[in-house]
């Protein structure tokens, strides 16, 4: 075989290992009995070490060098070679014992987080989270030395290749200056409109699940290559061609689970739409988490909180829960689904206040990775940041710094991609609606094919061929830019 062919076989095996890890991790988060946690942690740690050993195989360096001289490589193959080099460089920075220790620490911390969150007991989580943070600092330092990056940027680079905190700082400082005043304006405009009454529950879980599955099908989710389950924190995971999503249900408010399902379906559509010919190769993966979050937020916030969508969804909601009366009409539902409120929980936040939740987490994790703040001070710093950015303080740590699984699960550097994704979502949805005149009318009748077809061509099917700004520029005419996002917020929330 040629050097390039040898690389594709090898990276195909790494992908197969990732698939196995993905299903075991999904099971850990959904169905695994608590008593299996220790043995599952051992199994996942072993598989991750084996995967790491495959990714740093000494043959790879020789093959990568030789493959660069192969004149027959096309555009996709050259991009695949570039992505292979990126993976190899990052992985060779980490020793196997650090990979193993990190995997075990994360498994232990995730299980401790579930109980600590339920009990609102940050001190119970502290020693487990401290060990995860210590190992993340080590990983960031090791990767940063190899890549010429700060430890935080090296961790960020795993989730958003090429992403840099200096760029994020400028974007987030701009949003942090813009959002408080805009929020006040939007709340004032909201106060001039009729206030929708809460819908009376309870809303049976099975009815919520059925409605969620109908919406997944409308959006284009392929149930032959995935499934819907329950977890403490909603997520999209699984494996190639087995893309599984989860949600959590509240019988007092069906909107939380429904919008969670729609959000995770956006992720799943991206995964199900990746280029089939390169599915097991680095270039066939999603570009990064900014674009991944753009797809979930495009569906949840841009498309499915629109008047068009709620006109389609209103009769399905009434049918699912035997609802009737004016509170179940599309206009009342739209006012409810676009209601602004200063809340404690990120995943339940509206799109106006959501960026403040992310900016808080970004600033805190940067400080923690830099060892500029003791981890024990996290609850107090969290509450102070909530007061500054959102004007509210959570009454306990379950509604505060314990609400997200990202830090216990080792996801340091992930949080900024949510709001960067919201900015990208606004750009992509605007471009799709301009390019596809039937996108919004299609949503109004429950036909997402025009919108998803455009996304398949311009985002999903591109895999990791282009970097984020290049993909956005080709698709929307500009790199990542908060201007379209701000204009969208003004149109939706300032009109009386």
TrEMBL record:
Protein name: Metal-dependent carboxypeptidase
Coiled coil stretches, renumbered: none
Residues annotated for Zn(2+) binding in this entry: 263, 267, 293
Enzymatic class: hydrolase
EC number: 3.4.17.19
Keyword list, A-Z: Carboxypeptidase, Hydrolase, Metal-binding, Metalloprotease, Protease, Zinc
Entry annotation: catalytic residues: 264 (proton donor/acceptor)
GO function terms (MF aspect): metal ion binding; metallocarboxypeptidase activity
Family that this chain belongs to: Belongs to the peptidase M32 family.
Catalytic activity: Release of a C-terminal amino acid with broad specificity, except for -Pro
Cofactor binding mode and count: Binds 1 zinc ion per subunit.
Superkingdom of this protein's organism: Bacteria
Origin species: Ancylobacter rudongensis
InterPro entries referenced in this protein's UniProt entry, alphabetically: Peptidase_M32_Taq (IPR001333)
Function, as annotated: Broad specificity carboxypetidase that releases amino acids sequentially from the C-terminus, including neutral, aromatic, polar and basic residues.
């Amino acid at each position: 075989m040629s050097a390039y062919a040898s690389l594709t076989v090898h990276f195909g095996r790494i992908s197969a290992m990732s698939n196995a890890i993905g299903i075991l991790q999904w099971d850990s988060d959904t169905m695994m009995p608590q008593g299996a946690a220790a043995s599952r942690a051992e199994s996942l740690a072993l598989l991750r070490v084996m995967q790491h050993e495959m990714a740093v195989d000494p043959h790879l360096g020789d093959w990568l060098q030789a493959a660069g001289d192969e004149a027959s490589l096309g555009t996709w193959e050259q991009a695949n070679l570039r992505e292979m080099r990126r993976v190899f460089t990052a992985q060779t920075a980490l020793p196997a014992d650090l990979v193993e220790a990190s995997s075990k620490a994360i498994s232990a911390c995730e299980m401790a987080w579930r109980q600590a969150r339920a009990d609102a007991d940050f001190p119970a989580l502290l020693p487990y989270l401290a060990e995860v943070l210590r190992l993340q600092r080590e990983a960031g330092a090791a990767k940063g030395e190899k890549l010429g990056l700060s430890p935080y940027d090296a961790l960020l680079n795993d989730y958003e290749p090429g992403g840099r905190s200096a760029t994020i700082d400028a974007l987030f400082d701009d949003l942090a200056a813009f959002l408080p005043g805009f929020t006040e304006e939007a709340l004032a405009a909201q106060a001039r409109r009729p206030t929708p009454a809460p819908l009376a529950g309870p809303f049976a879980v099975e009815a919520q699940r059925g409605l969620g599955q109908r919406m997944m099908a409308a959006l284009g989710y392929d149930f032959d290559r995935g499934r819907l389950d329950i977890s403490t924190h909603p997520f999209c995971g699984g494996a190639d061609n087995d893309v599984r999503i989860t949600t959590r249900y509240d019988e007092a408010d069906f909107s939380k689970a429904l919008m969670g399902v729609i959000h995770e379906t956006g992720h799943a559509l991206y995964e199900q739409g990746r280029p089939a010919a390169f599915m097991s190769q680095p270039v066939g993966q999603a570009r990064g988490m900014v674009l991944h979050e753009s797809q979930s937020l495009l569906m949840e916030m841009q498309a499915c909180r629109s008047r068009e969508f709620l006109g389609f969804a209103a009769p399905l909601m009434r049918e699912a829960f035997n609802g009737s009366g004016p509170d179940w009409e599309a206009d009342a539902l739209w006012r409810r689904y676009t209601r602004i409120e200063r809340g404690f929980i990120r995943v339940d936040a509206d799109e106006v206040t959501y960026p403040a939740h992310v900016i808080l987490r970004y600033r805190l994790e940067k400080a923690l990775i830099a060892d500029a703040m003791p981890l024990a001070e996290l609850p107090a710093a969290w509450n102070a940041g909530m007061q500054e950015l959102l004007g509210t303080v959570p009454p306990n740590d379950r509604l505060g710094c314990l609400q997200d699984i990202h830090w216990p699960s080792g996801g340091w550097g992930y949080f900024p991609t949510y709001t960067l994704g919201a900015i990208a979502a606004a750009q992509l949805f605007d471009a799709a609606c301009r390019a596809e005149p039937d996108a919004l009318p299609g949503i109004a009748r429950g036909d997402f094919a025009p919108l998803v077809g455009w996304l398949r061509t311009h985002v999903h099917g591109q895999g990791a061929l282009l970097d984020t700004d290049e993909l956005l520029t080709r698709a929307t005419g500009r790199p990542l830019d908060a201007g379209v996002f701000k204009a969208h917020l003004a149109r939706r929330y300032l009109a009386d």
